[in-house]
Design goal:
The structure is a single chain. The protein has 280 residues and is mostly helical. It folds into two domains: 38 residues; 237 residues, MetI-like fold (Orthogonal Bundle). α3 packs parallel to α6 and α5 crosses α6. The protein is globular. It holds the Pfam family BPD_transp_1. InterPro entries: MetI-like, MetI-like_sf, Phosphate_PstA. It is found in: Cell membrane.
Length: 280
């Protein structure tokens, strides 16, 4: 009876996976069928326009790149620092357990809630306005729990024998963490960081909440400039009734997917590169 139930569960999981892959393939085909014909260098190098044949994605693409760079600069050092402290320095006390439980809960909070927090704290409270830095701080809050959790798991996976060998040779706590634990955990940490940024690059709700613009005919020159991003531009085109703008939205989706796949491929390459030099 137990074997029958196990086989039934495996079959249901396989069926759910196949259905999900089929739906994903249909969505990708629909986006390719509508948007592939609009992809060109002119589309990538032109600003948005009310005329579909002249519209492009330059400001949104550069805005997304700006946003991801600033988000990474803010979130990765903070997230890695928190993970190192929780795993290597903080004792296994009730306070540490409460902090870790709350971090895990924050990873499941809807992104729109972070948008509301960013609007109240950064846009209005810190008077940053609808700027890139306000958007980057909001997105950093969104992905910080993911970075902390993934970095903790990578650090936790390092065998204790590496730490003990370092201590036996007279290394301090920080020297052990800096020169032995972090290099061994680096593949997992980098993979988690890039996957967290991959989630951030596709988010539209937090940026809409903080007031990111839907039409910009210039590229940002500093972190305090107004901005738009690929998900917002896609949302703007998809909400228009004219059929040509629907095709532009599909082309924007393809560009966003290409950016996501590039980031995921970078995560795989970095992980495989560093894993070759780590033998436990």
């Amino acid at each position: 009876m137990r074997k029958i139930k196990g086989k039934t569960f495996e079959f249901l999981c396989l069926a759910a996976t196949l259905i999900a892959l089929l739906l994903l393939a249909l969505l990708l085909w629909d986006a390719w069928d509508k948007g592939a014909g609009w992809l060109s260098w002119r589309f990538l190098d032109s600003f948005p326009s009310r005329f579909p044949e002249q519209a492009g994605i330059k400001s949104a693409l550069l805005g997304s790149i700006w946003l991801m760079l600033l988000t990474a600069l803010i979130s990765i050092p903070v997230g890695m620092g928190a993970a190192i402290y929780l795993e290597e320095y903080a004792g296994r006390t009730w306070l540490t357990r409460i902090i870790e439980i709350n971090i895990s809960n924050l990873a499941g909070v809807p992104s729109i809630v972070y948008g509301i927090l960013g609007l109240a704290l950064f846009v209005r409270g810190m008077m940053l306005g609808r700027s890139l830095i306000a958007g980057a701080l909001t997105m950093a809050l969104l992905i910080l729990p993911i970075i902390i959790i993934s970095s903790q798991e990578a650090i936790r996976a390092v065998p204790n024998s590496i730490r003990e060998a370092s201590y036996a040779l007279g290394a301090t706590k920080w020297q052990t963490v800096r020169f032995h634990v972090l290099p061994a955990a680096l593949p997992g940490i980098l993979t988690g960081n890039i996957l967290a940024l991959s989630r951030a690059v596709g988010e539209a709700a937090p940026l809409l909440m903080i007031g990111a613009l839907t039409f910009i005919a210039f590229t940002p020159a500093s972190p305090f400039d107004p901005f738009t991003a690929l998900p917002i531009q896609i949302f703007n085109w998809a909400s228009r009734p004219k059929a040509e703008f629907q095709y532009l939205a599909a082309a924007g989706i393809l560009v966003l997917l290409a950016l996501l796949l590039t980031m995921n491929a970078a995560a795989i390459i970095i992980r495989n590169k560093y894993q070759k030099y780590i033998k436990w």
